[in-house]
Amino acid sequence: MAGMPEIDRSKCNGCGLCVEVCSCKVLMLVGSTIEINEKVECRKCTRWCTMCEMVCPTGAIQCPFDVVTEE
Amino acid sequence: MAVKLDSLQSSAYFSGLSSDELDAIGKYIFEKTAARGEIILFEGEPARAFYIVIAGVVKVFKTSADGKEQIIYLARPGDSFNDVPVFGGGLNLISAEAMTPVALYGMEKEALELRLAEHPKLAENIIQVLSRQVEQMLSLVEDLSFRRVTGRVAKILLENVEDTNGQRHRLTQQEMAAMAGTAREMIGRSLKLLEDEGKIRLERNRIVITDKEALRETAGVAR
């Protein structure tokens, strides 16, 4: 799914911090790992807040950027 | 899998060598693949081989005793890593992690030393590669010593802007922090500052450079 945080489930310890900070409610805890709720789009903010990446203690969530020059 | 001579030739190590020379050297090269996130080398272990990236991106980094990571450089296709300890002897000076699925060509220390005596052009190429690495290290020392964090972030953005083939690696703020030698929070602040100054625009999974000249000025780099 384009434009969504990337989750490495092998690193996720299920602490749920990312769910707590996600203002779009895109992330949800299923069992002991994080899943993306595909019914919701991470579009509440016009740009990534990257809070989920910032609070993740294990580096399981990444919000990578492409760096481009304006056309 | 057989070593592809055109892949070898695309590396600065083997450019300018004849097909016969590449054939002879190719016998001593082994292929290695790694999945995203896999550690290829650990700092401090005995240096057995150096590697050339054929496909993908490898993060070359050092880690402090308290776990802080400093990215030395990102090795892309054609780039090499772990050359210095292979020539100098001793232990791996860096760790290396696959940031994408990667394909590598490797050559063991003993095989390389023997081939050097047989192929003077290879020795000449290696001197040039190592000279460029010294330049890169000096540039990193300069960045960490003299450039403010915002300037470092500006430079990182300029160095990682997508080329016409779309061949650039995507960067997280954590990776930018490790490159700039600072905390992740500082990257967020620096990006916001650059946006407020009209030099970049932050979008969903994109950082758009809107004023390249002004960004260059912030980075302190010539055109």
Compose a concise summary of this entry.
The complex is a heterodimer of chains A (71) and B (223). With 71 residues, chain A is an alpha+beta fold.
Please supply descriptive tags for the structure shown above.
heterodimer, A: 71 residues, alpha+beta, two-stranded antiparallel ribbon, two-stranded antiparallel sheet, 2 helices, 23% strand, globular, B: 223 residues, Jelly Rolls, Arc Repressor Mutant, subunit A, 4-stranded antiparallel β-sheet, 43% helix, 22% strand
What does this structure look like?
The complex is a heterodimer of chains A (71) and B (223). Chain A has helices at residues 17-21, 51-55; strands at 6-7, 27-30, 33-36, 61-62, 66-69. Chain A is of the alpha+beta class. Chain A has a domain at 1-45. In chain A, strands 1-4 form a two-stranded antiparallel sheet. Chain A starts with 5 loop residues before the first strand and ends with a strand. With 223 residues, chain B is of the alpha+beta class. Helix content of chain B is 43%, strand content 22%. Chain B has helices at residues 5-9, 19-26, 83-88, 109-118, 120-146, 149-159, 173-180, 184-196, 212-219, and strands at 29-34, 39-41, 49-55, 58-63, 69-75, 80-81, 95-98, 102-108, 200-203, 206-209. A four-stranded antiparallel β-sheet of chain B has the order 1-8-3-6. A four-stranded antiparallel β-sheet of chain B has the order 2-7-4-5. A two-stranded antiparallel sheet of chain B has the order 9-10. The longest helix of chain B is centred in the middle third of the chain and has 27 residues, at 120-146. Chain B is elongated and about 55 Å long. The mean pLDDT of chain B is 87. At the A-B interface, strand 5 of A face helix 8, strand 9 and strand 10 of B. Strand 5 of chain A pairs parallel with strand 10 (206-209) of chain B.
